[in-house]
Amino acid sequence: MRTAMISVAFAALAQLSVALPALGQQFAEASEVAARSNVARAITHLYVCDSLNFQGRCENLETETNRCYNLFNNWNDVISSLGPDHGTTCTIYENFDCQGRTVGGIVNPGLFNLNEWNFNDITSSYRCS
Question: 82 with 117, same domain?
Fold first, then answer.
């Protein structure tokens, strides 16, 4: 009987040694997700215009940092000049969902002529930090 109890105890320990690393991995993954969701976000702005040199129709887009924005409201593929607030750096993307060709490192005062970057009337999404 005592031998049977010892065998059961060893079997339980063996199962536990297999389960604990998997459980630890689940906790590590949960911590990583929590850390990503707690990324500091702040409100900034990206000033966009449909003509060169900040002329034509313009709008100051309120922007939460570290978030991808798709351009709607007649701003998709029409931006010719843009600039973020002081202390903000932005990247513009050719496609929706911050995909495709990019122009990055955009800081204030911004880009007065997107033709110089071969990106005039091409921007479909952006992200600022």
Answer: yes
